[in-house]
Design a protein that fits this description.
single chain, alpha+beta, 5-stranded antiparallel sheet, 26% strand
């Protein structure tokens, strides 16, 4: 009787341990909506004003005005994820570059820069190490927890690689 009980307990523990270490494959949901853009930069530019460059990197094709960033409040900064990855909160792309302007002072100044002025302030034309589109962020129940698990479980390969 004791041997059967011991065997049953050992088997139960083994099954529990196997199940608890099991990794499920992440499947992004790409239905229309805001994308979960996960990226890593070569340096910390989380406080710098980003601009979007043309494909040839010779002009600024899009940029955020001070009021655009100020209206987003704290959501203007990327969300820190595991392993130095960041979650975009403003709408950058693989053509992002960073200026020497800091977001806080840029928003407070409310000075309207031209695309050419912003281009002259770029400090890194190629700041990204990697970038992924991990699907519709609204479809994720807990975005940060989900994306941290994706990163920890090395499941970013299941997302669309942008860079």
């Amino acid at each position: 009787m004791k041997l059967k009980l011991f065997t049953l307990l050992t088997l139960s523990m083994f099954l529990f341990m196997c199940k608890s270490t099991e990794k499920t494959s992440f499947k992004p949901d790409y239905k229309p909506g805001p994308p979960a853009i996960v990226y890593k930069t070569k340096k910390d530019y989380s406080k710098n004003v980003p601009v979007i460059l043309s494909d040839d990197k010779k002009t600024v094709s899009a940029y955020f005005g001070p009021s655009d960033l100020a209206n987003k409040g704290q959501n203007v900064y990327p969300t820190q994820l595991n392993n130095d990855f960041l979650l975009d909160n403003i709408g950058i792309s693989q053509n992002v570059a960073y200026t020497s302007l800091l977001i806080d002072s840029y928003c407070k100044s409310m000075k309207l820069f031209t695309a050419q002025e912003l281009y002259s302030l770029i400090i890194d034309f190629d700041p990204l190490e990697e970038m992924y589109n991990c699907g519709n962020r609204s479809a994720m129940e807990n975005q940060v927890e989900t994306l941290n698990k994706v990163i920890d479980d090395k499941q970013l390969k299941n997302c669309k690689k942008l860079k």
